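Regression test attached.
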Amino acid sequence: MMWDFLMHNSPALIIAVPLFAAFFTPVIGRFSKKAMYAWVVGAMIFTEFLVLILLYTVYTYGTQIYVFGARPYSMAIPPDSGGIPVRIIFTVDSMSVFMAFIAATVGLAGAIYSVACEKGQSGQEKYYALVLLMIVGMLGMVLTGDMFNFFVFLEINSLASAALVSYRINKGVSVEAAFKYAVVSAIGALMILFAIGILYGEYDALNMAMIASRMQFTTLDKIAMALILVTLAMKCGSIPMHFWVPDGYGKAPGAISAMLVAASQASLYGLFRMCFTVFGLAASHITLGYFLIILGLISMFVGVTMALVQHDIKRLMAYHAVSQTGYMLLGVGVGLATWGTPAFSQYGFAAMEGGIFHIINHAMYKGLLFLTAGAVIYRVGTSDLNKMGGLAHSMKYTTIFFIIGALSIAGIPPFNGYASKLMIYESVYQFNPLLAVIAMIVSILTLASFVKVFHSAFMGPKIYPDVKEVPKSMLAGMAILTFFIILFGIFPQLAITYLVQPAASALANPIGYISRVLGGGP
Amino acid sequence: MMSKIVRTQANILYPLILIFGFYIVAHGHLTPGGGFQGGAVIATGVALVAISFGYGKIKKWIKKTNLTAAEAVGLLSFIIAAFTGIGTSFFCNWLANSGLIFGDTVPYGPNPGYLNTAGLLPIMNLAVGIEVLGGLGVVVMYMLSAAKASEVK
């Protein structure tokens, strides 16, 4: 009974539970700080549990739909609506739930980490309420099957993120970064809204499946497509629209930087969803595919070369986040460029799997690296690498976590970065050897850059004699992400079978997505 | 603080603005407007009084903590209203046409607008109205508190 209830309602509850928790957090925070921490972490654990239930449901029974306010919840098209799905719908296929898993896990780690990291700060009720709202934004973006709803969650995500970036005012520097992010994402959101307006005017529908099935691909549609894709590429931080990333990631508190990675990836999901499901049936795959590949190549290369010269630890990691996003764009772009040709089954699908696998790996190791950077800043008080040194003497767990994250991002076995990067190299090599060579060079440069960070922050004589290890809750947040890094590194087949391969096949199957919503499908 | 003319005008207009705001909230399911618009109108009432009497005086009348409490109450009642339908589906409007409060059935054809209809919609409008008046009120208060610091007189 309870199990059935949770299974059926999990798509809605995944949004509703953190939303309710966010609204209730300020009330609890008035009475007791400890109760508030327990409340927030409890809500996140429950959300993670719901995501796991949904993961199981989708893996076993296929794509799930949840229609808000409908009787019953699974009726997408009301009998008196003339065949148009009018209500807000959540269409959860394997790709959506895969992204939801990332968002919930990184959000959980971030929430636990924040408990100790933000202990001394004022206005914590608002901080945790915004953290939960940001998670709601990410989860909503990846689960929704409705264009306007996507825009709403994108806005929730952007506004909450921008407010959180400026949480530590930091002599106005963080506020400037947050303002930049807020302005850029507001312009982007307006472009998306305009594009949705175009599509709504043309097809009388906001449902992604309905728009995809009615897609004529007129000039107006091309304008709408360009607006949506460019905005989402900007939100996921690919070069040349990356300018908010170093500021936003670099000036945010540690846990927020880690969650911003997952938030950017929700936009990346949006980009892939638009490319494959909404416009994929009508648009030219080659054009879209090369669009993603070129974005990916530029992001990879420029990102890592910009990172090499940085001496602010978080700014450096932010440029690496840009660079790693390039791998995902490259992998999925190769999949999209070969989609529908025989090459797709030869290597295109494997490239997509590699790109999608890299999303989860990147969220875990980059999240971990940002958390370790936050831990270092928490103890040392500066983010300048030139002023750090010798931290390995006193912060041994943080050092171990940093080594794991750094080796993973550089693609060294047995960590998870190796597993996904190898898949990308192998399949992209068959598409075009030059692309694979560039990807490998970028990987080497990444390693070089992290060797530099490791050496200047953790090695050498003890400069700070009174630095201690960070509190346990911060270590616990890092340990959650480390667990997944090692798990996916040693058993990549586990992740590929249960998470990545269903996600890639769901993304490459827009017909199944459409027919599941509009009827006729399983 | 502004001149006596302005203050008198504000005194007269303030209750009218509040009534108009709550009218928009309450008739959200019948006429243009709704929770957000009505809440914004109410918040303009707060802004009017605040500007005409100055921040120093107004902060004794309108407490920021009360406004944030209104925000929390509005948001919570909204999501609780959404949760009440979870037996069927989240946001399910089980109250409409049920005969209970706001549960009357609308007769077919043109009508002057019946207030006691639409189920959960008026309740959610009310919740959003409370939330927005709290939220925008806090925004107005914070902006005024910054303006006070730079005041010359």
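Expected vs. actual: identical. The interface with chain B takes residues 9, 12-13, 16, 19-20, 23-24, 26-27, 66-73, 88 of chain A (CB under 8 Å).
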